[in-house]
Design goal:
- By secondary structure, the protein is an alpha+beta fold.
- 48% of the residues lie in helices and 28% in strands.
- It has helices at residues 16-37, 61-70, 72-77, 91-102, and strands at 2-9, 40-45, 51-57, 81-88.
- The protein is elongated and about 60 Å long.
- It starts with a strand and ends with a helix.
- Pfam families: MIase.
- This is Transporter.
């Protein structure tokens, strides 16, 4: 199943920007490893914002939930990270459905 994940990352005043960068570097290493393994289809960083967009391919929602709990950024500062999750459907499958429905 494909999902779009929108991560918005905040940081506390006692952490500071350098502390955020340290955690983010660890997260980047894990994210790029997951991309190499095929779990992450693609990643983007939104310019000028502390926001990352990811497309992931996992078998079940349970798997995605477990993965999210295990992310370094979630373990170290999960209370400061908002994740918006959307299920995705391949457009080709949707288009085939539309064509089939026209024939009814």
């Amino acid at each position: 199943m494909l999902y779009r994940l929108d991560f918005t990352v905040e940081y506390s005043s006692d952490m500071g920007q350098q502390g955020l960068f340290k955690v983010w570097a660890e997260e980047a290493e894990a994210a790029l490893g997951a991309k190499g393994a095929g779990v992450v289809v693609d990643l983007w960083k939104v310019v000028g914002e502390r926001k990352v967009l990811a497309i992931v391919n996992v078998d079940t929602p349970d798997d995605l939930d477990r993965i999210l709990f295990d992310l370094p950024i979630m373990q170290k500062m999960g209370n400061l990270v908002q994740v918006d999750v959307k299920s995705l459907r391949r457009y080709e499958d949707f288009a085939a459905d539309v064509s089939e429905r026209l024939g009814r």
